[in-house]
Design brief:
The chain is mainly alpha-helical. It has four helices and no strands. Helix 1 runs antiparallel to helix 2.
Length: 80
C-alpha cells in the first residue's frame, strides 16, 4: 500500500466525517439535521482541501487511501 503525506487537518476532517456518518447510521439517530449538515460541511472541507492540488494529492489512489486509513493510525500519520 502506498503511503501519502496527508496533512493532519485533512486526516482530522476525514475522521470527523466517519464519526458523524456512524452516528447518523445508528438506529434512531438524534439530531439528524445537524449530523447531515455536519457531513456536508466536512465533505466540502475534504473535497476542496489544498492537499488535492499537490502532486501527491493528484494521484488517483490518494482519496481512496485517505478513507482506508484506520482511525487508530490517523493520529500517527504526519504531513511531510
Amino acid at each position: 500500500m502506498e503511503s501519502f503525506p496527508f496533512p493532519d487537518d485533512l486526516l482530522r476532517a476525514q475522521q470527523a466525517w466517519h464519526a458523524a456518518y456512524r452516528e447518523l447510521a445508528a438506529p434512531r439517530p438524534r439530531h439528524t439535521t445537524v449530523l447531515r449538515r455536519r457531513l456536508l460541511k466536512l465533505s466540502v472541507r475534504i473535497q476542496w482541501h489544498p492537499f488535492w492540488a499537490t502532486p501527491a494529492g493528484r494521484v488517483p489512489a490518494a482519496p481512496v487511501e485517505l478513507r482506508r486509513i484506520p482511525p487508530h493510525e490517523r493520529r500517527r500519520v504526519r504531513s511531510a
